[in-house]
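Predict structure. Input: Prostate and testis expressed 1, 125 residues.
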Amino acid sequence: MDNSLLLGLPILLCCFRVLYGSFADKEHGIHELFVGEYHIPVIEIIQCRMCHLQFPGEKCSRGRGICTATMEEACTTGRIFRNDGTPWLTFRGCLKNCADVNNIWSVYLANFRCCRRRGLCNEDL
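Output follows.
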């Protein structure tokens, strides 16, 4: 059997594993596949749920869809609460230089959550 065919099958299987989140325990975007003496970089593709505007008890009213995070981006969910603690607004999407933030306070209270552990990971944040 042709060696290039034998080499191509593990690469193809690894690409499917990356796309379906089998590297869920890792937060990195690039992994290496070792096949014999070859080191093959595999780039992880992360898709995020997107919604620009969602009020409590309602479906997404603006910007509903899916975005693909770049290497510098992560999936994010932001929640804004009124000053009495009641939920006011939620938004989701891809965000560059994302960082988890708790209880930013001005007129409203805001929380941000970021993830890259698997595709659509911000659905359950």
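Confidence is low (pLDDT under 50) at residues 1-28.
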